[in-house]
Amino acid sequence: MKSKNISPILVSLTVFSLVLAACGGSSDNSSSNNKKESKPLFSFPQIFKRTPHNPSPGFSGNGADDSSSNNFLSELPSYEGSQEEPAGELQLNDWTLPKLSGAPESTSPADAKQPSFLHPSPTSTPRDMFFDDYGVNPSIDTDDDHLSTFALDVDTGSFTLARNYLRDGNLPPQDAVRTEEFINYFSQGYPFPSERETFGIYIDGGPTPFTETDKYHMLRVGIQGYDVPRSERKDLSLTFVIDVSGSMAEGNRLELVKESLNMLVDQLHSDDEVSIVAYSSNAWTILKPTSGSRKDKILDAIFGLYPRETTNAEAGLKLGYKHASFMFRSNAVNRVILLSDGVANVGHTGPGSIWESISRYAKEDITLTTVGVGMGNYNDVLLEQLADNGQGHYTYIDTLEEAERLFVRDLVSTLQVIALDTKIQVDFNPDVVARYRLVGFENRDIADEDFLNDDIDAAEIGAGHSATALYEIKLHPGARGQIATVFLRWEDPDSGAIRETSEQFFTDELSKSFESTDKHFQMDVLIAEFAEILRESYWARESSFADVLDYAEHTAKILEGREYMELLTMIEQAARLDRFH
To answer: Which residues, other chains included, contact 59 with Cβ-Cβ below 8 Å and sequence gap of 6+?
Structure first.
């Protein structure tokens, strides 16, 4: 097993636990001399589902959650007395489960004023922002290790969060920058493969303005999933878990969540199903499972929310997963969508227990998407790792335009999964490649020997999603021939079958100059260098924002697109701020 970046990760997990404890959360500290038994966030005796499924039943109660109780058999939802009796009962080891107890009313006080949506106003440097330092990948000698293995990543939260920092006049913290998420935010222009193929592997490369000598090249490894037309997407079974704690009043965070969900609800069909859970100091049901055709009812529930007290993320997720389990449909997209600033100061928020519990649900095809909002008092670490363990992805919404991108334009990619536990292994030829360095993906490393281990959790890929990895490689002088073989391995979410494909790349396929490479390749190199400078990477110590901007202005005009013009603005802003940093 490789030892790359092990120390920074272990240290960062320890620091994360201490930070949460300082914020008022409950986390168990242990050492080799004083071991304590960690208390799990959830204590699910068994994943449960209702069989057979009956769409759109109603709850007989509001479904309050007592966060201090782990006796789930006394808290699971029942549908007794609903207008449409379910065809089957909730079952756990063939036991009939009793109904949930009552819950707080979900309606707002009559005098509660609902503010209209406004973009958060510029502020001073945000405080209490929690990130993790995963280190920077080293350059590896192929004689020591010619295999590079990692889980793919389609998260984009780091990029939009950095954009928000720059828009507000601040450079993002180094630890907030994950290079692969900057690259993944942008379209790559890869051709879509057929559904039968599932994935296409696309490899190209060439010299760049930022490599040390002419012996170095950048290699781009791209993965493109097949697309699913909106008219052919699966039915949705969604549970919104919405943070309504006091911190969600800052910067109109909750209002941004409401407007974002308004866009998502507008995309629902009559065969889709939604339930809504809110949480503050405890959790309660806002909306019973409701057909997507009843948009007014769903939106009334959403827009009736207002900020309350403290943040019990444990209770919200616990109740949310109960709903998702009850609503489970084998032929639908079953997903919990958490919308929060990630702050959790009540309940058990230790990373080990919550990740393990959510991973168990992911194995039962109930996945998790985390959507972050807000600047200041924001926990990037928790939201990213929740999504990773929930076989979903993490995104950050800073504007309504970003919400439209996520929930309208990319709705199918956001929600419908085409591959589970997606891993990639690049086998470099030591006779041609002397050294290689993976740019980004520091917290996605997988032991080489675990590439064929299908019990290892990896990445979920949505329909139409692409993922791109860049490698800086050094070739042996005069070497010719095969540079690398790229292997991709994943699980089919419908059949459970394990599938694998591969692609080779040779020296004669390298471009002779940076200018002659594909324009998307050029932009990826520039985006990566921008991110590496932002996080003050050792490998970008000789580069500047001005260097990147010189090349990016030309390439962005060729590619066009609003996101590229916005990228130029971000680089310009970073250059201005850097002069006073």
So the answer is: 77, 78, 79, 82, 100, 285, 288, 289
